[in-house]
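In response to the reviewer comment on reproducibility (Comment 2.3), we provide here a single inverse folding case reported in full, input and output, so that an independent group could reproduce the run without further information from us. The structure tokens appear first.
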């Protein structure tokens, strides 16, 4: 999309983590290095089960002496509950930030309008809140955490046109980037099959965190057998959960999908790696042919 566009992400919410122990508290729980999070730098991270399976993904940004957690709105209460289980005697406070809205900002000159360089995670004050370059891929633009009452005005005054979630989803899915439990199955998906390594969501040098042992084992022993990647579908967008097959045999499953202008659709599918090999019958999503498109950032 050429025009600088803003989309309020109604399906995302914000939690606040404050207190003297906020950094050490989160450091032993999440997949990325919390010590990197400052008012100038945001990160993307995940909270896993002890067995290394996905529970939550979120962005961590800093405002003054508080961490802001950009997470799934419908599952924010579950994330808050799970974090409180590990609080023990740590000097931290955990609470929802219902006064904040989250916006995705993308398109031509989006980063320039925010005064941000195209560096993953770079953050700066904006519109009474803060904005940061998407830590996963700068091509996705930036995210902003803004007061709900003035978010629309701040975005308009900065020169952003109002867009739709479908506009952002088209960009995200084409880039092969997951969006929470829309693309990752709770208590089943793993980080490495979902691209967290290449997209900067895992720090391999930070030490132990919840689920670290299995995540590291998958990396060093080459245990990843599936990957989440974009697929072009020759037909309307099938429902999430539609099996991907080859010669009638299961090859994967479709996650989020969206129709494309001009016909066809685009989706993210978790595919067996052998299904990506050339040759053989085409992959099918229901009755429509599905063509995998490996993202440039993916290393598998």
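Designed residues, in position order:
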């Amino acid at each position: 999309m050429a025009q600088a566009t803003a989309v309020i992400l109604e399906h995302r919410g914000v939690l606040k983590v404050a207190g003297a122990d906020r950094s050490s508290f989160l450091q032993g729980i999440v997949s990325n290095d919390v010590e990197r999070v400052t008012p100038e730098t945001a990160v993307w991270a995940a909270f896993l089960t002890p067995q290394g399976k996905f529970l939550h993904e979120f962005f961590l940004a800093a405002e003054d002496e508080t961490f802001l957690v950009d997470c799934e709105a419908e599952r924010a209460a579950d994330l808050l509950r799970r974090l409180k289980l590990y609080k023990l005697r740590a000097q931290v406070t955990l609470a929802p930030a219902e006064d904040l809205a989250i916006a995705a900002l993308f398109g031509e000159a989006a980063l320039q309008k925010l005064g941000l360089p195209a560096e993953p995670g770079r953050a700066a004050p904006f519109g009474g809140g803060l904005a940061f370059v998407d830590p996963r891929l700068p091509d996705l633009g930036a995210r902003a955490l803004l007061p709900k009452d003035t978010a629309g005005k701040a975005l308009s005054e900065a020169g952003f046109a109002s867009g739709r979630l479908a506009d952002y989803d088209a960009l995200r899915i084409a880039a092969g980037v997951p969006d929470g439990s829309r693309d990752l199955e709770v208590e089943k998906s793993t980080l490495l099959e979902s691209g967290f390594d290449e997209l900067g969501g895992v720090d391999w040098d930070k030490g132990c965190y919840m689920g670290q042992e299995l995540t590291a084992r998958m990396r060093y022993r080459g245990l990843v057998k599936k990957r989440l990647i974009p697929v072009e579908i020759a037909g309307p967008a099938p429902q999430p959960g539609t099996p991907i097959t080859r010669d009638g045999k299961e090859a994967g499953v479709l996650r989020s999908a969206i129709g494309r202008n001009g016909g066809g659709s685009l989706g993210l599918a978790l595919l067996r790696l052998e299904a990506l090999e050339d040759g053989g019958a085409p992959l099918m999503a229901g009755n429509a042919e599905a063509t995998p498109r490996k993202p440039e950032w993916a290393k598998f």
